[in-house]
Write a structure and sequence with these properties.
Elements: H1 4-13, H2 28-36, H3 39-60, E1 66-76, E2 84-96, H4 102-168, H5 174-208, H6 230-240, H7 242-263, E3 270-278, E4 283-291, H8 297-364, H9 370-404
Antiparallel strand pairs: 1-2, 2-3, 3-4
Helix pairs in contact: 1-6, 3-4, 4-5, 4-7, 4-9, 6-8, 7-8, 8-9
């Protein structure tokens, strides 16, 4: 089990997001508004109120005062004399009492349920944050793709106009103009599809998380490498994991429920007083009584079931801890590899763009073929598009790592 003091040292050793670092995220104020009005977050907030009421119920207990009223008619048949009738009545006031220790366990159960609801609220907020981050970067990707295809269309339009001019001057063949127009039409088709995907992603983002900015950051910031080693990040993520906190608090509550069920094997007694009037008031009775249920197999079985459930929930918590550690390590390696992938992709894109520009200059001087130039333009565009996607992937993975470590969007 991870020790909290060690985790605090780990969290302190991980560098936080520098104030001066350009951000690809929407403003924190807009994010906070969108998250706190999210239906799942509001539902979790309402559940905290439910558990707070349940806590009060458990502290008060389910035992209540009971008032009993009775009336009866008595008839006597003495051997001598006439029959006699008497009006009689009785009343009793009684209440079961929780045995020592049960009230304490009930209060602790209520407090644990409130704590569990608070962890669930934090988890709902965190999951909504993850969803917002994913939707935001999905929109940024489609926007980047649309921007890249706009740039490619503008480049091909300029190239097509140049070729048409050269054809009019007799310096270019008709086939070259056709090839140029075909390449432009393909790029325009890709641009139309990219813009449609961009609108769809924006609509999805706005409907799920209203109030976010209508435009992304310009220019897009460059990703920074991941600092800190795997153990530091996985330790910090495990410390701040709401899912793990829920599992651990469920295990604590299940153990308390087991203790409470074991205590219930000894039934609560019922104490009461009663008052009666008999023979039309000739006799008055005042008394007290106690009743104790005799425990049976049902109570023992319920206690055994609660103990087994506590063991099962504790083992599920161990499984959650293991899963969180594995997912955190996977995320760390993905974020580290994402930065390296973007670096390599950007270098490849720069070189292919440079090669396409060289072929364009050569073609203008009458050297090389249009086919080679168009192929180079396609390769350069694909490389630039891939580099943009890799840049956004690296940014999203880094922000996801920081989000899970609670270094950004700390709203709970």
């Amino acid at each position: 089990m991870i020790r909290i003091p060690a985790l605090l040292l780990v969290a302190a050793s991980i560098p936080a997001l520098a104030v001066a670092e350009p951000s690809a995220l929407p403003p924190d104020a807009a994010v906070a508004r969108a998250l706190r009005t999210n239906p799942s977050v509001l539902a979790a907030s309402s559940q905290m109120q439910v558990e707070e009421a349940n806590r009060r119920r458990l502290e008060a207990g389910s035992h209540e005062w009971t008032l009993r009223l009775a009336g009866q008619q008595r008839r006597t048949y003495p051997p001598v004399g006439g029959n006699e009738r008497y009006g009689e009545w009785g009343t009793a006031l009684e209440r079961p009492l929780r045995l020592p220790g049960k009230a304490t366990l009930d209060a602790e159960l209520g407090a644990r349920s409130v704590s569990l609801a608070e962890a669930a609220y934090g988890d709902a907020l965190h999951e909504a944050s993850r969803g917002l981050l994913k939707a935001w970067f999905a929109w940024l990707r489609e926007s980047a793709a649309a921007a890249q295809w706009k740039s490619q269309v503008a480049l091909l339009e300029k190239q097509s106009a140049t070729i048409r001019r050269r054809q009019q001057l007799g310096d270019a063949a008709r086939i070259e103009s056709v090839q140029s127009e075909a390449a432009l039409a393909q790029a325009e088709s890709q641009l139309a599809q990219a813009m449609a995907r961009q609108r769809t992603a924006r609509e999805d983002l706005q409907r799920r998380y209203p109030g976010l900015p209508e435009s992304g950051p310009e220019p897009m910031p460059q990703p920074l490498p991941i600092t800190g080693d795997e153990d530091e990040w996985t330790g910090s993520i495990a410390e701040h994991s709401h899912e793990l906190a829920i599992a651990l608090r469920e295990a604590e509550r299940a153990q308390l429920a087991s203790d409470r069920s074991r205590a219930e094997r000894l039934p609560d007694p019922t104490f009461g007083v009663h008052l009666a009037s008999e023979r039309s008031g000739e006799e008055h009775i005042v008394g007290a009584f106690v009743s104790i249920p005799l425990p049976g197999e049902a109570r023992r079985a319920a206690s055994d079931a609660a103990a087994a459930n506590a063991t099962a929930v504790a083992r599920r918590a161990d499984a959650v801890r293991q899963k969180i550690g594995a997912e955190a390590a996977s995320l760390y390696h993905a974020a580290t590899a994402g930065w390296s992938s973007w670096q390599a992709g950007q270098k490849a894109a720069d070189r292919l763009v440079s090669a396409a520009d060289m072929l364009a200059r050569a073609y203008q001087l009458g050297e090389g073929s249009l086919n080679d130039l168009l192929a180079a333009r396609r390769l350069a565009n694909d490389a630039q598009l891939s580099a943009r996607m890799a840049q956004l992937d690296a940014l999203e993975l880094r922000y996801r790592l920081m989000l899970d470590a609670h270094q950004i969007w700390e709203f709970d």
